[in-house]
Design brief:
Blueprint (H helix, E strand, L loop, with lengths): L6 H23 L6 E5 L5 H9 L4 E6 L2 H8 L8 E4 L12 E7 L8 H11 E12 L9 H9 L15 H10 L3 E14 L2 H8 L5 H7 L3 H14 L8 E13 L1
Parallel strand pairs: 1-2, 1-4, 2-3, 4-5
Antiparallel strand pairs: 5-7, 6-7
Helix pairs in contact: 1-2, 5-9
């Protein structure tokens, strides 16, 4: 299980991507106004803040198993509008039928016991409520880290798969939600494209301290790191000003209880 205790690095790596795909996801979800929300795996509060800004909720509770992430989220603007607590998806500290909408942004594949996590979502959502989420398409190698992962393989480094890679496809998500007993299950994907000012900007964002890939890069010789950087550059479209733009894809699912 990855540890996301370096909240600043997580924000730098994933913040821009999370906001971009989260906005598209909420537009597709079309949740009711005045709903009681639960945001599972809230991280630094990026998606929680989007809920507060765009969904007119009656209340928002947000949970994450990493204390450092929750502490960071509480210090952000979302901390004034949402109730944050430390908890895992498999053991939610809420009464049955407590929420109208349950969301999970970029987390489902990281849940150790996904069936148990979905069972907990089914327990705490109200009858007829919405349960939805999205994950990066790791199975198709289309997460924001794909240029790094492809380049690692090009220089002969066997980069381990992201946790839950086999649970990130649309078919796997649909099967998971159907096993949990949810109905009106719908899936789709979102493609997002972001820009970076320079290769240095991209590299800094892609090497957060908590990442196993970062640790592997730090263990390389200077020559190996130079080869890796050249391989990454070969994967990225760079314009004449040195600006980088590339795309990632998220798979999304929504359902009713």
């Amino acid at each position: 299980m990855l540890s996301f205790d370096d909240s600043e690095a997580y924000e730098r790596f994933m913040g821009r991507w999370s906001r971009a795909v989260g906005a598209l996801f909420l537009e597709w979800l079309q949740p009711p106004a005045g709903a009681n929300w639960l945001d599972i795996g809230c991280g630094t509060g990026i998606f929680t803040e989007l809920i507060l800004k765009t969904c007119s909720p009656a209340s928002v509770h947000a949970v994450d198993p990493a204390p450092a992430q929750v502490a960071h989220a509480c210090a952000q603007p979302a901390g004034y509008g949402a109730h944050f607590s430390v908890a895992a998806a498999e053991a939610l500290p809420f009464a049955d039928a407590s929420f109208d909408v349950i969301s999970s942004a970029l987390v489902i594949n990281f849940i150790s016991d996904r069936d148990r996590g979905l069972a907990e979502m089914a327990r705490v959502v109200r009858r007829g409520g919405h349960v939805a989420g999205f994950v990066w398409d790791f199975e198709s190698e289309l997460s924001p880290s794909w240029p790094m992962r492809v380049a690692m393989r090009r220089i002969g480094k066997d980069e381990a798969k992201a946790p839950g890679t086999d649970a990130s496809s649309l078919a796997a998500l649909k099967s998971l939600f159907q096993r949990a007993g949810f109905t009106a299950v719908e899936t789709r994907y979102f493609k997002v494209t972001l820009g970076f000012y320079s290769f240095e900007d991209f590299w800094q964002a892609q090497t957060p301290s908590y990442s196993p890939m970062t640790k592997e890069i730090l263990a390389m010789s200077a020559g190996e790191r130079a080869r890796l950087m050249e391989a990454v550059k070969a994967e990225l479209p760079v314009d004449r000003n040195g600006t980088i733009q590339y795309s990632a894809r998220a798979n999304a699912i929504k359902s009713r209880s």
